[in-house]
Design a protein that fits this description.
The complex is a heterotrimer of chains A (about 290), B (about 600) and C (about 230).
Chain A (H helix, E strand, L loop, with lengths): L1 H30 L6 H13 L8 H26 L5 H23 L13 E5 L2 E4 H23 L1 H11 L1 H6 L4 H23 L9 H4 L1 H10 L5 H19 L11 H13 L10
Antiparallel strand pairs in A: 1-2
Helix pairs in contact in A: 1-5, 1-8, 1-10, 1-11, 2-3, 2-4, 2-8, 3-8, 5-6, 10-11, 10-12
Chain B lengths: L2 H9 L18 H19 L2 H26 L7 H18 L2 H5 L3 H25 L3 H22 L2 H4 L16 H27 L1 H11 L1 H6 L4 H27 L9 H14 L4 H20 L5 H16 L4 H15 L26 E12 L2 E12 L3 E5 L6 H8 L7 E6 L2 E2 L5 H6 L2 E3 L12 H9 L5 H10 L14 H14 L4 E5 L7 H18 L2 E6 L2 H7 L2 E6 L2 E7 H6 L1 H8 L2 H4 L1
Helix pairs in contact in B: 2-9, 3-9, 3-10, 3-12, 3-13, 3-14, 4-6, 4-12, 6-7, 6-12, 9-10, 9-12, 10-12, 13-14, 13-15, 19-21, 20-21
Chain C lengths: L2 E10 L2 E11 L4 E5 L6 H9 L6 E6 L2 E2 L5 H6 L2 E4 L11 H6 L5 H10 L16 H14 L4 E5 L7 H16 L3 E6 L2 H6 L3 E6 L2 E6 L1 H6 L1 H9 L1
InterPro entries (chain C): AAA+_ATPase, ABC_transporter-like_ATP-bd, ABC_transporter-like_CS, BCAA_Transport_ATP-bd_LivF, P-loop_NTPase
Family (chain C): Belongs to the ABC transporter superfamily.
GO molecular function (chain C): ATP binding
Chain lengths: ~290, ~600, ~230
């Protein structure tokens, strides 16, 4: 039953990948950015909030500080992109987030040091066990959050007037602007929301998954794999993709002889998906 | 842009930029003179620099090598690649393996390092191939995701396996018996070795960028459709850029290992790859001298911080800020510099180069007559976008030697027709044959090679080349250079030396037409060639076009909604309306057809 | 009180596509702008709504200098630009498209009443509608915003004439509620049929300005404007 055990462990990481995958999909569809800084703003916000622990604030205030910080950084980044690259290609817009990823990693080494952070997970221990297999609280919560955010965002986008406006912008930005819709303001709202969610996720998983600034990259890759499974458009497939990556990694840890391969799982999922998705040659209309 | 453009710009400062100069590439000795100068300078530095600064200088050269490779992908070919140091790591790792775990050093002696370095670089470019293949068909962002994935995964793998020299605690032997890192005299010789390798690679990159490959990379960065239409495969252009970039990255990796004679995964970690990418965007590393400047920044900024006891992380933050600045202004230091030079040249009286089309003596050729040979046969062509039928059952013929006009109001399906003929809409039904060859299932670049070429409504001429480099690229491998000069002159275009950056958009479109004629296709599709031309240019252009089939053996299909040009060059017309052929036949008959007038102006009777 | 263009020049790339154009659109009236393809009609509308910036001249709407305002401000000030090519939001339903601009339920119902045939498609995604229905959605959507001025670009593009014919009286109806309409059309006859004023633009310049009847009755003048 070792395999089953490692599968469950893997799935618990998969919940985190799925949650970030959903954020990446929302960003890609609503702001036309593949956000390489998605994890980074969350990690940075969470680390900053740790500095407030000595003040004996309640946990929820600490998490709130993390979320507000991440939302602010994310919105600033969104503002830069919306102001100067409003009508540029997805590639050009996304390239800026690569630069901010570099900046955030370095800044966090500078401000918080290079040693692992004292970032305790919000929830510790198993939710339930059967036999010697433990299903952790964090894993279940992350999966619930991933599904919850996917569902809430679907509801928001289809049932509210805010959501309708967001979809209009995603469909045709210029046409939306000509109808008087506040494109920049709404996009900043999306940036701030996804930034805050990132910080929430990091605060929940703590240093188990995000011990150092390196996690800004390490977590991004499986999240991007999850989002790619959803072709950066489908939140539900992104959830499935995150779980798939997590499960594969988990199962592989059950075979210590090929442990090197686990690091290559997200990349393999990405590559296989791209190959499948690109059976036919596509010509971009604009180019 | 590269050094090639500077030299071209310099030579076109002569007053008569229009007359073709005897030199084709600027002075041939220019790059060699620069190389010689750098060699002398490097030799001088090797003896003059204090020990510590010599190490720094070596690091600058190695960083420059990484940027040089990266610049090809990010600058010249316009893609996001985030694993340049992974290529370096693979190159260095393989070299390390060969030098410490095999009998290669004993077999080859002093040359072993060079051989191992080349093998390592080849391994790196193979990794480039494997990484690039799935990613290149999609647009740039996916390449970014994949390369970041490679960087992160290789990072973790290297932490676990470490470099081969550490398995046996053995140092890598430097080339040609140069003593190892502890011996200071060795460092001077090693600096000279690195400088030599950098100069050779820089020369190689210089000539590659001016070759067909280099032109292909620039075309791809500017327009994928434009590239395919010249008969070059977009995938192979991107892949070659990626593999060359990885190869140079691999060499850089070997040089890094050789510098300290042992290797540590930290050197190659993802964060540094990100830094290199951002820096390459900030400086514009596709320019060789800017890659060198970037190398200086990459090493010197941390060094200066160290002198002032400022944490080294500030260096990456500085790169990030420079990178954001460059990305949001869509420019780079190198491009800004070039622009300043250009503005300075303008101030000195060198204005943008215009066509001399209007002042040419009219040829006076009559409207060419069609022969009996059917060149292009389109049968029952049908294109659907979802429920919308864009083209339904279009059937037409074009005869050898004629200029056929395809006209119709806006939205009639003219652009869809061109796209499906030239392979950009593979999902059409019906058949297209050119001179007996079925074109339907061919990719765009294969169709171009089969003798059907096209020009575009939008500007597809990249401003980063010279007129000659562009024309030679469009013309293909076997193009006759004299023919290029002849056709360019025939259309009153600037000479081959002129940089396209200084040519206005209207003239660029003339150059596009001329270059495609020089490529010698059987049939050339001109998509609204007269848009943007003045009335006088219009008349002169029509006069020249009429002579094209007879003089250059190229038949023409002109897609226009402007009837002026069509009237003066076409013997036969096909009219499209709502995706169907409304009328076809002799020009006078078609234009006199009341149905055609209705299509252009709407139904008169229905309102009045 | 009107939409006034004075001496407006628009550049695309290097050369001007619109040179020194002056015209006026009055509330409650339709000004039809006709001219051959490539005459610069679309660029002129884009300069008014702010998709591109005019290179010279002044554009005022009821006394407000539009050139100082962003696209969105021009739109919220009461100027609605219906671009060519049926700019529906494909993933939105007909209802959502209209609700996007309608401030009240009354505005929504009034807009829908323009095209009763849309009611049976009300909850379909607009991407699944026919071209004519999509054009109706786009027009109704602009009307639902209760604009003061409407810029309509090539409503006929890719539509069968009979469909376009259905739209013309609706445009007239909209203008009669007090909206100033600037109608750009290639299909001259139908568009001039509903016009109060006519402007012909060729090669970026005004070549005729005045009564639509004058243009309609002079077939040669019209032909000349189109076919050169």
């Amino acid at each position: 039953m070792d395999i089953l055990g490692s599968l469950v462990v893997g799935l618990s990481s998969g919940g985190l990948y799925a949650a970030f995958g959903v954020l990446l999909v929302l960003m890609a569809t609503l702001t036309r950015v593949i956000n390489f800084s998605q994890v980074a703003v969350g990690v940075f916000g969470a680390y900053l909030s740790l500095r407030f622990i000595p003040l004996d604030l309640p946990t929820w205030v600490i998490i709130l500080i993390a979320m507000v910080t991440a939302a602010a950084i994310s919105a600033l980044l969104g503002w830069i992109i919306a102001t100067w690259l409003g009508e540029s290609s997805t590639t050009a817009r996304s390239a800026v987030t690569v630069a901010t990823l570099l900046g955030l990693i370095s800044l966090s080494f500078l401000v918080f040091g290079t040693r692992p952070q004292a970032n305790p997970p919000l929830l510790v221990g198993p939710l339930f066990t059967f036999g010697d297999i433990a299903v952790t609280k964090v894993g279940v919560l992350m999966l619930a959050l991933a599904v919850g955010i996917a569902a809430v965002s679907r509801l928001l986008l289809t049932k509210t007037s805010l959501g309708v406006r967001l979809r209009a912008i995603a469909d045709r930005q210029t046409a939306a602007e000509l109808l008087g819709i506040n494109v920049k303001g709404l996009q900043l709202f999306v940036w701030a929301q996804t930034g805050a969610m990132s910080a929430l996720f990091i605060s929940i998983v703590g240093n188990a998954q995000a011990g150092s600034a390196n996690s800004m990259i390490v977590l991004l890759i499986p999240a991007a794999a999850a989002a790619l499974v959803g072709a950066f458009t489908n939140v539900w497939l992104a959830v499935a993709g995150g779980l798939l990556v997590g499960a594969l990694q988990g199962v592989l840890t059950g075979f210590p002889s090929i442990t090197l391969l686990t690091d290559w799982v997200p990349l393999t999922v990405i590559v296989l998906f791209l190959l499948w998705n690109q059976r036919k040659e596509v010509w971009d209309v604009a180019r | 842009m590269s050094l090639a453009d500077t030299t071209a710009a310099t030579s076109s400062r002569q007053p008569d930029a229009g007359s073709p100069a005897p030199r084709r590439h600027g002075p041939w000795w220019f790059p060699w003179a620069v190389a010689l100068g750098v060699t002398v300078l490097a030799t001088g530095l090797a003896f003059a620099l204090p020990d510590y600064w010599l190490l720094i200088a070596t690091s600058v050269l190695v960083a420059m090598m990484s940027l040089l490779g990266l610049g090809i992908v990010t600058g010249t070919a316009g893609m996001i690649a985030l694993c340049q140091l992974s290529f370096a790591a693979v190159g260095g790792w393989v070299m390390d393996l060969l030098m410490t775990q095999t009998a290669l050093p004993e077999l080859l002696g002093g040359a072993a390092f060079v051989v191992a370095m080349l093998v390592g670089a080849t391994a790196a470019s193979l990794l480039g191939l494997i990484v690039g293949l799935p990613a290149l068909r999609l647009r740039g962002v996916n390449l970014a995701v994949v390369t970041l994935g490679v960087a992160a995964a290789l990072d973790m793998t290297l932490q676990k396996v470490s470099f081969p020299d550490q398995w046996t605690n053995e140092r890598v032997q430097r080339p040609f018996g140069i003593p190892g890192a502890e011996d200071l005299s060795g460092n001077r010789s090693y600096f000279l070795f690195v400088a030599g390798v950098v100069i050779i690679v820089a020369l190689g990159v210089f000539y590659l960028q001016r070759s067909r490959w280099g032109a292909g990379w620039r075309m791809v960065a500017f327009s994928e459709r434009g590239t395919a239409s010249t008969g070059t495969s977009v995938t192979s252009a991107k892949l070659s850029a990626f593999m060359v970039s990885a190869f140079i990255g691999g060499i850089a990796g070997s040089l890094m290992v050789g510098q300290i004679t042992t290797a540590n995964y930290i050197t190659f970690q993802t964060l540094n790859s990100l830094g290199l990418y951002v820096l390459s965007m900030a400086v514009g590393a596709h320019l060789i001298e800017m890659a060198f400047f970037g190398g200086i920044l990459f090493v010197l900024i941390p060094e200066i911080l160290k002198q002032f006891n400022i944490p080294l992380e500030w260096a990456s933050i500085i790169y990030a800020v420079l990178g954001i600045q460059a990305l949001t202004t869509k420019s780079s230091m190198g491009n800004d510099l070039r622009r300043m030079i250009l503005a300075w040249q303008r101030k000195r009286g060198l204005n943008s180069i215009e066509s001399t089309l209007v002042s040419l003596e009219p040829v006076g050729a009559p409207v060419p007559a069609a022969s009996d040979n059917v060149l292009l046969e389109v049968k029952d062509l049908r294109v659907e976008f979802g429920a919308v039928v864009a083209l339904s059952d279009v059937t037409m013929q074009l005869h050898e030697g004629e200029i056929l006009g395809l006209i119709g109001p806006n939205g009639a399906g003219k652009s869809t027709f061109v796209d499906s003929l030239t392979g950009f809409l593979p999902h059409h039904t019906g058949s297209v044959t050119l001179d007996g060859v079925e074109l339907d299932s061919l990719a765009p670049h294969k169709i171009a090679r089969a003798g059907l070429r096209r020009t575009f409504q939008q500007d597809r001429v990249p401003s980063t080349m010279t007129v000659g480099a562009y024309a030679r690229f469009v013309g293909g491998k076997e193009v006759d250079e004299d023919l290029i000069d002849e056709v360019l002159a025939f259309f009153g275009c600037p000479g081959t030396q002129a940089p396209l950056q200084m040519v206005d958009v209207g003239t660029r479109r003339l150059i596009e037409v001329a270059a495609n004629i020089a490529a010698g296709p059987k049939l050339l599709l001109l998509d609204e060639p007269a848009a943007g031309l003045s009335h006088e240019e219009h008349v002169a252009f029509a006069d020249r076009l009429r002579a094209v089939p007879e003089r250059f053996g190229v038949s023409l299909l002109i897609i226009e909604h402007d009837l002026d040009l069509v009237r003066s060059v076409c013997s036969n017309l096909v009219v499209l309306n709502f995706g169907q052929v409304l009328a076809t036949g002799r020009q006078e008959d078609v234009l006199a057809n009341p149905e055609v007038l209705k299509a252009y102006m709407g139904e008169t009777e229905m309102v009045s | 009180m009107s939409l006034v263009l004075d001496d407006v020049t628009v550049r695309r790339g290097i050369g001007p596509v619109i040179s020194n154009v002056s015209l006026e659109v009055e509330p409650g009236k339709i000004t039809t702008l006709v001219g051959p393809n490539g005459a610069g009609k679309t660029s002129l509308l884009e300069a008014i709504s702010g998709v591109v910036q005019a290179a010279g001249g002044t554009i005022t709407m009821d006394g407000t200098d539009l050139r100082k305002l962003s696209r969105r401000r021009r739109s919220t000030a009461g100027l609605k630009h219906v671009e060519q090519g049926r700019m529906i939001f494909p993933s939105l339903t007909v209802r959502e498209n209209l609700k996007l601009t309608a401030r009240t339920q009354a505005d929504f119902e009034e807009a829908l009443a323009l095209f009763p045939e849309l009611e049976k498609r009300i909850d379909n995604a607009t991407v699944l509608l026919s071209g004519g229905e999509q054009q109706m959605v786009v027009l109704a959507r602009a009307f639902a915003a209760k604009p003061r001025y409407l810029l309509l670009d090539e409503m006929s593009l890719g539509l069968a004439p009979v469909v376009f014919l259905r739209l013309m009286p609706i445009i007239k109806q909209i203008s009669e509620t007090g909206v100033g309409v600037l109608l750009v059309e290639q299909f001259a006859h139908m568009a001039l049929g509903v016009a109060d004023d006519a402007v012909v633009v060729t090669s970026g310049r005004v070549s005729y300005q005045g009564e639509p009847q004058g243009l309609l009755s002079d077939e040669d003048l019209l032909k000349q404007a189109y076919l050169g």
